[in-house]
Write a structure and sequence with these properties.
The chain has about 160 residues and is mainly beta. It contains 1 helix and 18 strands. A hairpin with a 7-residue loop joins β1 and β2.
Length: about 160
């Protein structure tokens, strides 16, 4: 995506790309504005206003955010935040996560450290270690790695989250 597309974006959080001459579909959308949800009917928005990465977005590097973030695309690199991260069914993260809480319904390859809780949804796959005060696993979820769960893990995760 070229830098000359920025002047045409509705805000600094919204980028649009036309595919096959059809109406532009959002690549990155701030859900607070509400734009882009109707165009991407196959993706569900975050339950709270926040940020959204569409499934055709790939980001390389360290990702940080304050509002809740839902990822349906691919992130190659570490994710550091005190906020809520949701990895959708088509979402892939290759790197370590340090966050307030995480819900995984896609693929996570790396270690996860959370201050609140880590949820592995039915279609979620976590290939890495978990440090969290609470771990919730639905039937069908996959975890390949070690777990440190409980009060001691909560203290360690809180320190790591604040440092990040």
């Amino acid at each position: 995506m070229s830098a000359d597309m920025w002047p045409f974006a509705k805000s600094r959080y919204e980028l649009f790309e036309s595919v096959d001459g059809r109406d532009p579909s959002p690549l990155v959308t701030n859900l607070r504005s509400g734009t882009g949800i109707a165009e991407n009917r196959n993706m569900s928005p975050s339950p709270e206003p926040g940020n959204f990465l569409s499934q055709d977005v790939e980001i390389q590097g360290t990702l940080s955010f304050a509002k809740p973030l839902t990822v349906h695309g691919k992130v190659i690199g570490n994710v550091c935040s005190e906020g809520v991260l949701s990895i959708g069914a088509t979402g892939v993260i290759e790197g370590d996560i340090t966050a307030g809480s995480v819900a995984i319904n896609g693929l996570m390859q790396g270690d996860v450290t959370v201050a609140s809780r880590c949820e592995l949804k039915g279609g979620g796959r976590l290939l890495g270690d978990v440090v969290a005060p609470r771990l919730i696993m639905e039937d069908g979820a996959t975890l390949v790695g070690s777990c440190r769960i409980g009060p001691c893990a909560q203290q360690e995760a809180a320190l790591r989250t604040k440092v990040a």
